């Protein structure tokens, strides 16, 4: 059962077919409780804007006290259209991380990338942040309209 991005009680069921004539089918149910490893805000990044604009976003990663970890490496999966910078911030409540993501695409188009954060945790050795980019052409400037005074007769 994939629990990525899920928190709380999860239940999955499956039907098993047997050769037992009294019980030709059995329904198996598996339940588990998934806890948050960290508070990640936002979970996904959208870099939308116009060609030539500075387009960026940031993600805050705060480890849960029950599952402390350090981020030891940050890299973009593709890295063609984004640049990233990871900053560790010491807080009274515990460490937190600020991940800055900046668009590097110079022309119109869409892209997808993933920022991979390697941790020193055995519980979750890698955190993935999805990045979606949508860069549009600037809207053409309108021609100045005729400024002559037009009156209705």
TrEMBL record:
<protein>
    <recommendedName>
        <fullName>DUF1573 domain-containing protein</fullName>
    </recommendedName>
</protein>
<feature type="compositionally biased region" description="Basic and acidic residues">
    <location>
        <begin position="143"/>
        <end position="153"/>
    </location>
</feature>
<feature type="region of interest" description="Disordered">
    <location>
        <begin position="133"/>
        <end position="153"/>
    </location>
</feature>
């Amino acid at each position: 059962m994939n629990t990525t991005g899920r928190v709380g009680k999860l239940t999955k069921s499956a039907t098993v077919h047997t050769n037992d004539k009294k019980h030709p089918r059995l329904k198996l149910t598996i339940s588990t409780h998934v806890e948050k490893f960290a508070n990640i805000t936002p979970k996904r990044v959208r870099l939308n804007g116009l060609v030539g604009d500075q387009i960026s976003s940031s993600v805050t990663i705060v480890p849960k006290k029950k599952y402390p970890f350090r981020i030891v490496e940050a890299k973009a999966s593709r890295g063609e259209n984004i640049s990233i910078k990871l900053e560790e911030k010491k807080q009274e409540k515990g460490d937190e991380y600020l991940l800055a993501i900046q668009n590097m695409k110079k022309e119109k188009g869409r892209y997808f990338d993933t920022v991979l954060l390697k941790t020193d945790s055995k519980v979750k050795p890698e955190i993935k942040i999805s990045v979606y980019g949508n860069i549009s052409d600037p809207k053409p400037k309108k021609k100045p309209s005729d400024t002559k005074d037009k009156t209705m007769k």
